[in-house]
Design a protein that fits this description.
This protein is an all-alpha fold. The protein has 20 helices and no strands.
């Protein structure tokens, strides 16, 4: 009988997961870019500001799943890989029951707090007060749905149902942006906009529940067993702590710039940073696919797990390096076309540095997924805390010395340190991956060095030459990361990308 752990790392399954996760994130983002000017026109600046704050509040809701979604993915995947998933339904029932109770309490607290938020913190114009309170209270009611959706997605990811999950998620997420536009045509109120958003969340919850019922025979809503919930909360708590520290490091430099320099400097820095962070769509799609496969195979199939890490990390680099090369080489031109001459002059150098840093930030997703899969998110959380202690003071120093370019340099140094540190951590925590981590470091360093070379070039001819040299050097390093057997199948892997995420290649050239 086939090893269930190895069967969950098949190339076709892995690549399909990456493609569907990429579509699930990418298509709504494209629609959001198109509809944003329309929404701003419909709402006006004051209500648009409230709308964006409300969406930020929804993002905060996600913290209250305490990382249980990811913890469920890991726990269920490990059980599936070991062939012992008989208690899967009971585990999911316990997790969802606990999260539902916590999130309802959170929703009640937010409901009570909304008038204080509107009257004393946000300084909402008097004419918008009632509308703002009503809208935010409607959205507060969505807190349990946001939390439950994260947990239910974790279940679907564990069973690698990425196609089904994204097929129901994509239309819901598209309507998440289209719904407010349509509602405002017939009801010019923020309350109506928020009701549309809550309806989208509810549709997401119901569709996820419909998808997981066949996977978990006997699944229902019962009183949660603490013995099952506590390990998930412990593991998820470390994941949440690590994520919060990462988010703090991601946004702290904006506040430092605002405190040390000016608000206009914040705009010139935050705009290119938001642009480069869009590149995360690619590694996140890969990481969401890798986590359940890693969790299923790391204990019983260490060699395929290490191979999957190496190829997954290499796939991330191959996906993001061309985009990073374009951002670094054409930073000023991109900003000029998008936002005009002012941003091209004020943010061009910042975008170049951030284009280098995002390469390292993306590569770090692969080792981070395996660290989470082996149950050691505490290690990444402690490492993130160490980074905060080192790089926040460094950012202050560099901002004072070099302005917003100094902030971008600090961000890039931290991203490179984070990536290298996670590869090193992984080799210590999971010895079977040591060789794979070392081999991944070669194209990572080659890519980073090539991007820095392009950044140093002063004119177009030298930029083109440096870009060609950087791309050639990176591709040579990536080629050397492959095994001899893999190099023999290079043509097949180009024609059939599924082979790149397949731990064992066939003996012939056929896929």
């Amino acid at each position: 009988m086939a090893n269930p752990a190895e069967s969950r790392t098949r190339g076709r399954t892995m690549v399909a997961g990456v493609l569907w996760n990429g579509l699930g994130r990418g298509l709504p983002l494209l629609l959001a870019l198109v509809l944003t000017p329309i929404l701003i026109h419909q709402l006006g600046l004051d209500r648009w500001g409230l709308f964006t704050l409300a969406l930020a509040m929804v993002g905060v809701f996600g913290v209250f799943d305490f990382g249980v979604g990811q913890a469920l993915t890991r726990a269920l995947s490990e059980r599936i890989g070991a062939g012992r998933n008989s208690d899967a339904a009971e585990l999911v029932e316990a997790a969802i029951g606990a999260l539902l109770g916590i999130s309802i309490l959170v929703a009640i607290g937010l409901w009570v707090f909304v008038p204080v938020l509107v009257d004393r913190i946000l300084q909402v114009p008097p004419g918008l007060r009632d509308q703002a309170i009503g809208a935010m209270r409607v959205l507060a009611a969505a807190a349990p749905l946001v939390v439950l959706n994260a947990a239910l997605w974790g279940v679907l990811a564990a069973y690698q149902r990425f196609r089904a999950a994204n097929l129901v998620t994509i239309p819901v997420n598209l309507f998440y942006y289209l719904g407010p536009v349509l509602v405002l045509l017939v009801w010019d109120s923020l309350v109506g906009v928020m009701l549309a958003l809550v309806a989208c969340r509810l549709a997401n919850t119901l569709s996820y529940l419909w998808l997981i019922r066949p996977l978990l025979p006997g699944f229902g809503l019962r009183r949660p067993k603490l013995a099952l919930v506590v390990p998930l909360l412990r593991l998820g708590g470390w994941m949440t702590f690590s994520g919060l520290l990462t988010q703090a490091l991601l946004y702290a430099d904006r506040f430092l710039i605002g405190a040390i320099l000016t608000l206009s400097a914040v705009a010139f820095y935050a705009t290119p940073l938001d642009l480069v962070l869009r590149v995360w769509i690619l590694p996140v799609a890969v990481a969401q696919t890798l986590l359940p496969a890693f969790a299923s195979s790391f204990a019983t199939a260490p060699a395929p797990t290490a191979a999957l890490l190496r190829r997954g990390g290499l796939l991330v680099m191959l996906l993001v390096f061309p985009a990073c090369l374009l951002l670094v080489g054409g930073a000023r031109e991109i900003l000029w076309l998008w936002l005009g001459q002012g941003f091209a002059e004020g943010s061009g150098r910042v975008l170049q540095w951030l284009g280098c840093g995002i390469f390292f930030s993306c590569v770090a997703f692969a080792p981070n997924s395996l660290i989470d899969a082996i149950g050691r998110p505490d290690a990444t959380a402690k490492f993130a805390l160490l980074q905060a202690l080192v790089f926040l003071p460094l950012a202050v120093l560099l901002i004072r010395l070099a302005g917003i370019e100094g902030a971008a340099i600090a961000w890039t140094l931290r991203a490179a340190t984070d990536c290298a540190g996670k590869l090193w951590l992984l080799s210590r925590l999971y010895p079977p991956a040591t060789t794979a981590a070392r081999r991944l470091a070669v194209p990572m360093l080659a890519g980073g060095a090539g991007l820095l070379l392009v950044l140093a070039m002063p004119g177009l001819p030298s930029l083109v030459g440096a870009g060609a040299l950087a791309l050639a050097g990176f591709l040579v390093a990536a080629y050397r990361t492959l095994d001899p057997l893999e190099r023999g199948h290079l043509g097949s892997m180009i024609r059939h990308p599924g082979l790149l995420l397949r731990p064992n290649l066939p003996d012939s050239g056929s896929p």
